[in-house]
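Reader question, answered in our methods column.
A reader sent in the components of a multi-part assembly and asked whether the whole thing could be modeled at once rather than chain by chain. We filled in our standard form and ran it. Here is what they sent:
COMPLEX SIZE: four components
ENTRIES:
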Amino acid sequence: MKNEASAILLISCPDQQGIVCAVTDFLMRHNGNIIDLEQHTDTKEGAFFMRVEWELDPKASGGAGGFALPRDQISSMFRLIAECHQMEYELHFSETRQRMALFVSKSSHCIHDLLARWHSGEWNTSIPLIVSNHPDLEPLAKMYGIDFEWIEITQETKAEQEAKIIQLLKEYNIDLLVLARYMQILSDDFCTHFPNRIINIHHSFLPAFVGAKPYHSAHQRGVKIVGATSHYVTGDLDEGPIIEQEVMRVSHKDSVESLIRKGRDLEKMVLARAVWAHLQNKVLVYKNRTIIFN
Amino acid sequence: MKNEASAILLISCPDQQGIVCAVTDFLMRHNGNIIDLEQHTDTKEGAFFMRVEWELDPKASGGAGGFALPRDQISSMFRLIAECHQMEYELHFSETRQRMALFVSKSSHCIHDLLARWHSGEWNTSIPLIVSNHPDLEPLAKMYGIDFEWIEITQETKAEQEAKIIQLLKEYNIDLLVLARYMQILSDDFCTHFPNRIINIHHSFLPAFVGAKPYHSAHQRGVKIVGATSHYVTGDLDEGPIIEQEVMRVSHKDSVESLIRKGRDLEKMVLARAVWAHLQNKVLVYKNRTIIFN
Amino acid sequence: MKNEASAILLISCPDQQGIVCAVTDFLMRHNGNIIDLEQHTDTKEGAFFMRVEWELDPKASGGAGGFALPRDQISSMFRLIAECHQMEYELHFSETRQRMALFVSKSSHCIHDLLARWHSGEWNTSIPLIVSNHPDLEPLAKMYGIDFEWIEITQETKAEQEAKIIQLLKEYNIDLLVLARYMQILSDDFCTHFPNRIINIHHSFLPAFVGAKPYHSAHQRGVKIVGATSHYVTGDLDEGPIIEQEVMRVSHKDSVESLIRKGRDLEKMVLARAVWAHLQNKVLVYKNRTIIFN
Amino acid sequence: MKNEASAILLISCPDQQGIVCAVTDFLMRHNGNIIDLEQHTDTKEGAFFMRVEWELDPKASGGAGGFALPRDQISSMFRLIAECHQMEYELHFSETRQRMALFVSKSSHCIHDLLARWHSGEWNTSIPLIVSNHPDLEPLAKMYGIDFEWIEITQETKAEQEAKIIQLLKEYNIDLLVLARYMQILSDDFCTHFPNRIINIHHSFLPAFVGAKPYHSAHQRGVKIVGATSHYVTGDLDEGPIIEQEVMRVSHKDSVESLIRKGRDLEKMVLARAVWAHLQNKVLVYKNRTIIFN
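And here is the structure of the entire assembly that came back:
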């Protein structure tokens, strides 16, 4: 999509005068050409959020010379500004290829969709590893030439097996964990290892129908619309910060089986959108809510 | 819309062979021209539902003579068929002008919308009465020349005041009660007087965010979509059969105030659609769920 | 989804009294248990349409014996009824596994999605053949073990190459042709070989933006919503009967590239829904419009 | 909604480094507390757009003193910045109550909706005048106590009558003209008097179905989705910059009459959203397209 290398700053800090000015002044002084800037002020919380993206290389900015700071000095130089305004910030580069591990169980619709996006080059990402608590999808992993680790988890083996998974994720140098209908609850402890780096898809319009059988509950309640929700995983099941949701209209004609069938399309779409937003460094988490830059 | 007089049968019964055949045979034997037929079988419940609408008058069916039974004999004649198949049924006539009472408090967006539909002739209905627990909207009622009854309700006066309302509804010969953001909970006893004849609008996508301040809760949870729900009122608050729902996309940019503002448009649209479906005799209730014929 | 064998009749005829009665009477006389019946009367056209589905096997109807006619006699027996009412009808069996050929060029998002549905068993269909005017997607076909035929087409070779394709489709015994972003216009003559059996996906909300570069046109016009359209292919480019459409909201922030990227998700979803409706025998074509039973 | 007084700058200029910095520096130097800032760079056009809103009064900014420039000096002070960067800009104040004239013919659904928003205080606007080429809606205007001018227009009287309307708009000091299903084409000359100040609602999803009978055309084509479009009026009929669009799903069951009935709800919603965006000073027009700030 974007061929030119760019840098991205995600900033949050207490609301105060002069923040945008300070950041844009910093970029201008180093010859930075802003290609996208979005800010949000949460007046109730007194909090300020900002995402700014600027070009790095000379050619892109039409002969104007490119950003004057080398990549590895940007963060330390910006820290001076950040400290003045009590900013927390993340610095990302668009050219970074993030490494994802997919977690699955038996359902394949989400993983099929994610693999297709990677395989077709739609997403500039790597998928070196698939983890599952069931062996069923190993052949699919093999089709795509991806390592598949079957790690069964029982009540008794949970701690031990999760430790093994953490070890694997380190070995594979994984940036992002995507739970593509992984039907196994991750422990609190596991989650704390990867804050805002585990994305799950829940097959309901949260907070309606938390728990295991949302389509059954939706059918039982007779709702006219069902949904799917993608969120960062925290220790609180189904309670993490929501990244994306989508819904579709259903009717009395839809049996539970029909809801499940139609829901699969929702789930894969919502999960893909959430992962895409994360990969684009467009998500900030603040007090269990997300700011999704556009 | 439809100028021709038609009759409508709403039928529910245990699923069994030959029901459609029996009903359509009955209509054919009396020269009935079907203009709409929709059936639904709930195989899990073993239940059958049907709505059939047919022309009554000669001219409409192109000289073919019209339905052979006079209006006041249809029900008794159909009863013979119904009893064979353990059917429950309702018979309606499209020419009937239903009489609605609107219940309001202080918010006017829903009532404004309903009054406009009536006033412009979009809906073939009567609105002879507006009931409120606050006096604020009396001027609006007067603008439209509609009687306005201000009936305050406190914990202590509830039984007495509800009795007064029931008396009023009888006097005005009301068919349908529409709670257009009426911020007063009706007692169990009151509800049982009007089964499937009270329609409420709840300002959330039920069953998410039941209760009093759904937009605050939605904001707090950080959802990306909010909704509104219209349902028949039963003794269980926010738990009655859902007739219609609609949603809209929101973002971190929406404050609670913004959700409330945008939500008004959802609420009035959803309530209007639910009332319209009811007025068209397109709603059947079965085990706290609705079948909405198309 | 549905394990039980069922039969489906799709009927269209001039509107007249007694049609539903005649059809349901036929089924009842042969002990047919209807599981779905939907009818539509187009009063303006004076045309009647109906889809009825009933169980075939004994066990399904709870010991009631099953449909009394053998599969191969249903059509000839029903013909007597059909002739009385000038019906055109199609008889289908749910157990039939339709054979699809996919037509592609270079884009893989639609074919990836269709293959995943087949491979995961979501769709009870066969995909024995992929045809393309480019060699690019042959590796993908091989991954799934499907025959791939690269058939280049130029102005000069069109007639000859289309004849070759027709020959292939016969050899592979293909029921349905799915153009999954096949960037080659089929000749009038080719289309007439497969009436209502070629499904295409067009990357705009038809009839807006016909032709080759709809996302560029949409961007140029500054629309706030873009769409995708799936339709049966006729000799008139982009003018065949529409089966399904879907849209999504866009903004001034979306470049042409962004529209193309987002549009891919629309396209694959819309195409899949259209093919699914066709596979379920839920589509009737009448005067270049479709009736889509629910 | 927002009680605090704020100022809004809408800016467009050739894309270049340092614009955000220059604007925010200007605000900071005068003690301006930014409450919203959104920018957009159209890289293809080499154009930059920005909307910034900041607080004016002391109390709002928590004792910080308020914006240091008096309202009537802001524009002239900002001009210095603007000229350095070849900016075009508009300065607005949130406390300004815009004056709208509504143009109608016979349909009342849009005007009913707009009047309700004004009457209930949802919109902080004035509606002193309703203009119509038919007398039908005069009683409605009277109900709301608004002046109603019946100005018939024929081919022959058009120039003269439009002159009369322009005169009226001047007398009433009208800021914004809203064509709420006004079935009369305004002349090129008339339009040039009110650039980006006339908002129309067209009852189709433009550019599909331009012209007079879009629902008939939509029905004829058999589309599965219909829409409505609100746009600024220019001399080119139905070709002005699109502000807002919305769609809804329809089916073969919808007759033309049913499309018209359902479409009314779309039309009034889309028109209201477009007018609201305009009233909030969130719309910029560039080369016949709109930038809609969020």
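What stands out: The longest helix of chain D spans residues 256-279. Chain D touches chain C through 31 residues (CB under 8 Å).
Send us your own complexes using the same form.
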